[in-house]
Design brief:
Layout: H1 3-32, E1 37-42, H2 52-62, H3 77-85, E2 90-97, E3 102-109, E4 114-118, E5 121-125, E6 131-133, E7 144-146, H4 159-167, H5 169-174, E8 175-180, E9 187-191, E10 197-201, H6 206-219, H7 221-224, E11 229-233, E12 239-244, E13 254-256, E14 262-265, E15 278-282
Parallel strand pairs: 1-3, 4-7, 7-8, 10-11
Antiparallel strand pairs: 2-3, 4-5, 5-6, 8-9, 9-10, 11-12, 12-15, 13-14
């Protein structure tokens, strides 16, 4: 080996030793670096009915974070994320260590897509089916669902029709509530127009079903009257079955939720289980 090669070899060994020593020293300094504080960042609307930041900070203090003499490297960020994600008002959580010895906790509040009213109470639900109890501190302007839901028939089953209605301006302005009938699980749309409801059966063929309702709205109800029928059913393919009203339309009954504020109009009196006097209307051709 030449003299130049020997020198290069020695320099490589010295550099490797230096890098190894630097890494050990850095790891030791990092291991001894204290967790000096926590920054809680809330994405989106931080004041959507509850102070998410204050609640997260309270929980972190209860868990001993920041931990005074506790090294930053010993803070279990995955444990914190898992615990905060299980909270009813969080959609997602990310925890990271910062170079200055602080923790950053980034919280995305739960994004509800509907509020459910059932015999067991009222709650909000997001797209993944996560629930958040509805109370006076948490209120969002979302579609209202009435019915009983469980793991077999979750409220998220109605997302296709909620999304469809929301994507079409005419329907989004018209439909105020959704109801799932016990037993049949038929989906009922409750329009802002008082006097009738719409039975779509399930979430299949929504474009065809609602096109048939539009035909009735445009060509039949202006002549018959908006309170002539109590139920317009489009649950069967290519048909419209309208049930004629047999009793006078009752005065609207206002329900009050547990916070004591008027929430929704009672639609029970507008629903019929069977169509004893129906008129079948063929779908017009446009």
């Amino acid at each position: 080996m030449t003299k130049t090669g020997v020198i290069r070899c020695l320099l490589s060994v010295i550099l490797a030793v230096y890098l190894g020593f630097a890494l050990v020293l850095a790891d030791d300094m990092s291991a001894r670096e204290k967790c000096v504080g926590v920054d809680v960042v809330v994405n989106g609307d931080a004041n959507a009915g509850r102070d998410v930041r204050a609640e997260v900070e309270r929980l972190l203090r209860g868990w001993g974070i920041p931990g005074g003499e506790k090294p930053l490297a010993r803070v279990n960020t995955q444990w914190i994320e898992d615990r905060l994600r299980r909270l009813q008002f969080t959609e997602d959580v990310e925890v990271e260590r910062l170079p200055d010895g602080r923790l950053r906790v980034t919280v995305t509040p739960m994004i509800p897509v509907a509020r459910v009213f059932s015999a067991r109470g009222s709650y909000y639900v997001n797209r993944e089916g996560k629930r958040a109890k509805a109370d006076i501190t948490y209120r969002r302007d979302v579609p209202l669902l009435f019915g009983e839901f469980d793991s077999v028939h979750p409220a998220t089953e109605l997302l296709p029709v909620i999304d469809y209605v929301g994507a079409h301006e005419r329907w989004s302005h018209l439909i105020s509530q959704y109801r799932v009938l016990p037993g049949s699980r038929d989906i009922i749309l409750v329009p802002m127009i008082r006097g009738h409801v719409i039975n779509i059966g399930d979430t299949a063929d929504l474009a065809s079903k609602l096109a048939r309702v539009e035909a009735i709205y445009d060509k039949v109800l202006p002549l018959k009257g908006w309170e002539f029928y109590d139920t317009i059913s489009v649950k069967w393919g290519g048909q419209v079955v309208a049930s004629r009203r047999e009793k006078p339309l009752p005065e609207p009954a206002i329900l009050f939720d547990q916070e004591g504020e008027a929430e929704v109009e009672d639609v029970n009196s507008m629903l019929v289980a069977t169509a004893t006097d129906t008129c079948a209307v063929k779908q017009p051709r446009f």
